[in-house]
Amino acid sequence: MPSSSLTPTDPAPQGDRKGPLSHLRVLDMSRVLAGPWAGQIFADLGAEVIKIERPGAGDDTRAWGPPFLTGRDGAETRESGYYLCANRGKKSVTVNIATPEGQAIIRDLAARSDVLLENYRTGTLQRYGLDYAALSALNPGLVYCSLTGFGQTGPRAHQVAYDFLIQAMGGIMSITGEEDGRPGGGPQKIGVPMVDLASGLYLAVGALAALARRAVTGQGDYLDLAMLDVQVNLLANQAMNHLLTGTVPRRYGNGHPNIMPQQVFACRDGAMVLAVGNDEQYARLAEVLGDPVLAEPRFARNRDRVRQRDELLDRLAGLFAPCARAEVLARLDAAKIPAGPINSVAEALAEPQVQARGLVARLPHPLAGEVTQILSPLKFRHAGQPDPRSAPPLGADTGPVLESLGLSPETLAGLRARGAI
User: Fold this and answer.
1) How far is CA 47 from the centre of its chain?
2) What is the predicted pLDDT for the residue at 16?
């Protein structure tokens, strides 16, 4: 089949199942979510991702449950849902980096890797001789990526942080949640650890940028990424609103500070979201609803609608309240006005569009037989993608990976006996 006949959602031609990053090896020494999320992106794109975990315990998130995956025998395994969501497609190798033998293994792996991901507290890996200076001396092409809460410099560089704390300090909670004076008013965190997830994305982007530079110069690099930096960057339009006016942004609940009308509205049988994005869409909305007040010139431009937000939202709420949700959504969809139901997580996963895109699939798992997971959203026309694999059990790949370094079964047995692996 000629490539020109492929649509963006067609699979790549059979035979190309390696993925665009299949030439890369990533040493993932990160824990919890942000770093592992970046490592999972590399794995989804075909890179060999070796996840280093503590012998006997593993990544912190393995214990972050329930829920835990149920094994073939019906009993709970050690695989938490939290761990499974961020470690798809990796190899798990257990190494005790506090031992000289464990440090030697990491140095050997780093010498043969393209990217190293780590999120230890600032200065920790330097104590073990596993910092950028030490490892880049062994492998000048290594792209060494450090992700911490506050970065490698500044007065908070040595402090520990988690997503919740960074959401608070980085301003996002002050603009998330219902307006003061309304039921439930007050600052709220986002329903998923968004700073972790966004930091993982930035980490992957930064590593890929360094690899692109290495292809030209032959030189690796060191990436210092801070979660607080990421969160402040993600303030986006709200930060710019403040910088332009000096006004401190406030919470608008489900409303938007710059675009109107974007809000949740109650119909007689359920809630819906209306997300008008421009004046043309608004004009069609006024026509569909048949309300002469909405069609008045004072509401024609977005800047005027923002200034009269309360009156406009109250008017729309009164118009939607007696409507059947499915009926009004069908009318809005026919007029090409962005609107939709508020789905639960279960409803979102069952959404026909999500199912058609192949985002949810059952993957083989050595302990459970199968596990249902959400797959990567990245779809390529030409590059192809590897068959997705579930997250590995703790230490599942220690033997094969270390044997590939030239260690004999006898040597591995000795390392296990001494607690190095």
Assistant:
1) 18
2) 56
pLDDT tens for 314-331 read 999 999 999 999 999 999
Q: Six-digit token pair at 221?
A: 């690099």
Cα–Cα distance between 272 and 236 in angstroms, integer?
26
**What domain count does the chain have?**
2
Q: b/e map of 300-329 (b: 16 or more CB within 10 Å)?
A: eebeebbeebeebbebbeebbeebebeebb
The token pair at 24 is 């890369």
Q: Indicate whether this model's pTM tops 0.85.
A: yes
Q: Which structural domain, as residue segments, surrounds residue 323? A: 262-349
Nearest Cα residue to 61 out of 81, 47, 77, 88: 81
pLDDT at 305 over 70: yes
* Structure confidence at residue 385 (pLDDT): 81
Residues above pLDDT 70, as percent of the chain? 96
Which residues are identified as catalytic?
Answer: 196
Q: Is residue 247 domain-resident?
A: no
For the chain, the helix, strand and coil percentages under 3-state DSSP, each to the nearest 5: 40, 15, 45
